[in-house]
Amino acid sequence: MPNYFPSNHLRLPLVLLLITACAQSVGANEDVLREKGKRIYTNLCVDCHGGQGEGVAGAYEAPLVGDASLGELASQITKTMPEGDEEACVAEEAEAVAAYMHHAFYSEAARIRNRPPKITLARLTGNQLRQSLADLYGHFHGNTAYTDERGVKGIYFTGSRWKNENKKIERVDPTIDFDFGKESPGEGIDKEDFFIHWTGSILAEETGDYEIIVRSTVSFTMDFGKMGRQLIDNHVQSGDKTEFREVVRLTAGRAYPFKIDYIQRKRKTEQPPASISVSWVPPHGTEQLIPRRNLIPWAVEPTFSLQAKLPPDDRSYGFERGISVDRQWDDSTTAAAVEFGHVATEELWPDYRRRHKDVSDENRLRLKNFLTELVETAFRTKLSEELQELYINRQVAACPDDGDAIKRVVLMTIKSPRFLYPATDATDSVSQRAANRLALTFFDSIPADKWLLAKVQKNELQNEQQVREAAWRMVNDFRARGKTREMLHEWLNVGHIGDITKDDVRYPGFDKQLVSDLRASLDRFLDDIVWSEASDYRQLFLAKWSYSTDRMADFYGESWQPVADAEAAVTEEGKLPRGPGPQRMRKTGDDGQLRLGVLTHPYIMSGLAYTDASSPIHRGVFLIRYMLGRTLRPPNAAFSPLSADLHPGLTTRERVSLQTSPESCQVCHSRINPLGFTLENFDAAGRFRVRDQDKAVDSSGTYTTRDGQEITFQNAEEVANYLASSEDAHRAFVSRAFQYFVKQPVAAYGPDKLDDLTRKFKESGFNIRSLLVEIAVISALEPHSKKIAG
Question: Which overall architecture, per CATH, does domain 152-296 show?
Answer without folding.
Answer: Alpha-Beta Complex (3.90)
